[in-house]
């Protein structure tokens, strides 16, 4: 999933998946065990970027995903221990060959307009997502569903997708191949249901503002017009489990400046903020500080459709010119760690040996700071390109933390590589995503957080035809490794693991992208705010069971 500074991606669970932010909810009575609830159950939060859409088939950024998490619900959700648990699903039967899922859906779920949530809502949503006309960037989540690839490539009609409704409250899913992590996939927002009647009523307007959207989750959005930087989530009284929801309202505002967010927190106008830079250094040991491990990688993506970044030596020069340790120790100061590759550390382990994926897939000489080798690669690149110097444009989002990072990158590159000029362009996050998706960039600082706790959640986006592959890096060997992991080796854990290791090594060796750091963080949290679940795989916060104490 895109992440504000972190670009996407997706959410998840699995190995080391989810941690609890604060204490989970206890009793269903007005008191949480012996804890008394505050009379006012309203909290205030901030984001560093605007909502791009409330259309769950089209969203691709962290802010919008978090809004969908709170206002919609799918078949499954992630619990505080990183496992999937039923949400709208009441019973799931998996065939012996692992390719057919028969899922019973609860009968008491409703949309915020009173319409019942049915199996057909899932069929409609899934078919809409894979329809090329929708232009979803998350079609890869359906890769293992029967006929999905052919539909996405325009070779079959969306109604041929391997999903159908058996009556009003049973869903049958046919996979093209066994997929051990498919329940994780079904907990993703892109596979949530949609109210067909409402989507078709509003047409192109659907999801472009709060009033053109209908919700089936614990909250509903009020006040987002499509362009404003503040909105509210209010309790959805049609939600099937509304008794579990204690908050009556969540106020959101966009605060791109960490100092602005901190001032609002200090004055009691925000209940949770993320710390960066000097804030993290000075306040990281506060009694209200909470560490936030995150399976997310910040990286440089290069436009390889045409131009200078088709040159591998130039990409390697950029990577080796960066002193990543200095960046995280002097600029970030929030617990982030240097990347060994695209897949984060402590995310997945070898099923046979227990070795960490990032350690096993690490390729020496690809992300290690080495100014001498960087200059050598740069000199070769200039010679191959027939140039004496270069001017390139580095595109990024315009929040303060990102600006600090790209100014560091600019300084490192210009000081290390003679004759290189780096021009910075910082624009609103949604605009940046639109430009990169259209291929309108040279180099882009962005990021990816996991969709679920499996390396494929990171690596699959760089297959040649993946819509998330904005730079259009392409490798037949990489594509084959991913294909093998999803097909002939899908049921052999050891062989599949090696396919994914090989894919990561191919990406690293060619520097298809340049990983920079793993975006861990630190939050300051109102001590009265309890019951929030933080997902360390994708960095999403779940406020369904949150509450304020007296």
UniProtKB/TrEMBL annotation:
InterPro entries xref list: Peptide/Ni-bd, SBP_5, SBP_5_CS, SBP_5_dom
Main location: membrane
Segments forming a coiled coil: none
Domain of life: Bacteria
Magnesium listed as a keyword: no
Signal peptide range: 1-23
Domain annotation Solute-binding protein family: ranges: 84-469
Membrane topology: Lipid-anchor
UniProt KW keywords: Signal, Transport
Compartments where found: Cell membrane
Keyword Signal in annotation: yes
Pfam families in the cross-refs: SBP_bac_5
Family stated for the protein in its record: Belongs to the bacterial solute-binding protein 5 family.
Name assigned to this protein: Peptide ABC transporter substrate-binding protein
Provenance organism: Pediococcus parvulus
């Amino acid at each position: 999933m895109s992440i504000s500074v972190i670009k996407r991606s997706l959410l998840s669970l699995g190995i080391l998946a989810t941690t609890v932010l604060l204490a989970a909810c206890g009793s269903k009575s007005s008191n949480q065990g012996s804890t008394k609830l505050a009379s006012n159950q309203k909290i205030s939060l901030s984001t560093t970027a605007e909502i791009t859409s409330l259309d769950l088939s089209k969203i691709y950024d962290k802010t919008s995903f978090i809004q969908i998490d709170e206002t919609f619900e799918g078949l499954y959700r992630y619990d505080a221990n990183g496992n999937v648990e039923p949400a709208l699903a009441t019973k799931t039967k998996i065939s012996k060959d692992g390719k057919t899922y028969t899922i019973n859906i609860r009968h008491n779920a409703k949309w915020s307009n009173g319409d019942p949530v049915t199996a057909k809502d899932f069929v409609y949503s899934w078919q809409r997502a894979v329809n090329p006309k929708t232009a979803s960037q998350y079609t890869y989540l359906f890769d293992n569903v029967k006929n999905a690839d052919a539909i996405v490539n325009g070779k079959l009609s969306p109604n041929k997708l391997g999903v159908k409704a058996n009556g009003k409250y049973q869903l049958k899913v046919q996979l093209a191949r066994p997929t051990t992590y498919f329940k994780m996939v079904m907990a993703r927002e892109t596979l949530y249901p949609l109210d067909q009647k409402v989507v078709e009523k509003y047409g192109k307007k659907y999801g472009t503002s709060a009033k053109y959207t209908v919700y089936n989750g614990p909250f509903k959005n009020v006040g987002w017009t499509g362009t404003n930087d503040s909105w509210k989530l209010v309790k959805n009284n049609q939600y099937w489990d509304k008794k579990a929801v204690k908050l009556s309202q969540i106020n959101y505002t966009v605060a791109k400046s960490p100092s602005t967010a901190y001032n609002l927190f200090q004055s009691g106008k925000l209940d949770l903020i993320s710390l960066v830079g000097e804030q993290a250094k000075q306040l990281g040991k506060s009694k209200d500080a909470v560490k936030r491990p995150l399976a997310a990688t910040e990286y440089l993506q290069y436009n390889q459709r045409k131009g200078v970044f088709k040159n591998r030596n130039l990409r390697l020069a950029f990577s080796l010119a960066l002193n990543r340790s200095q960046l995280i120790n002097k600029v970030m100061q929030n617990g982030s760690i240097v990347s060994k590759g695209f897949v984060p550390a402590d995310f997945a382990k070898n099923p046979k040996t227990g070795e960490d994926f990032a350690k096993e897939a690490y390729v020496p000489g690809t992300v290690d700071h080495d100014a001498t080798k960087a200059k050598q690669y740069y000199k070769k690149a200039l010679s191959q390109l027939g140039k004496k110097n270069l001017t390139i444009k580095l595109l990024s989002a315009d929040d303060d933390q990102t600006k600090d990072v790209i100014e560091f990158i600019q300084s490192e590159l210009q000081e290390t590589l003679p004759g290189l000029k780096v021009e910075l362009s910082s624009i609103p996050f949604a605009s940046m995503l639109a430009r990169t998706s259209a291929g309108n960039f040279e180099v882009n600082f962005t990021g990816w957080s996991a969709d679920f706790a499996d390396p494929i959640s990171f690596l699959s986006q760089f297959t040649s035809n993946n819509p998330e592959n904005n730079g259009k890096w392409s490798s037949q060997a990489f594509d084959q490794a991913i294909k093998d992991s999803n097909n002939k080796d899908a049921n052999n854990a050891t062989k599949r693991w090696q396919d994914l290791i090989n894919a990561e090594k191919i990406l690293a060796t060619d520097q298809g992208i340049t990983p920079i750091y793993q975006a861990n963080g630190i939050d300051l949290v109102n001590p009265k705010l309890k019951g929030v679940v933080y997902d360390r795989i994708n960095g999403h916060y779940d406020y369904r069971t949150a509450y304020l104490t007296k």
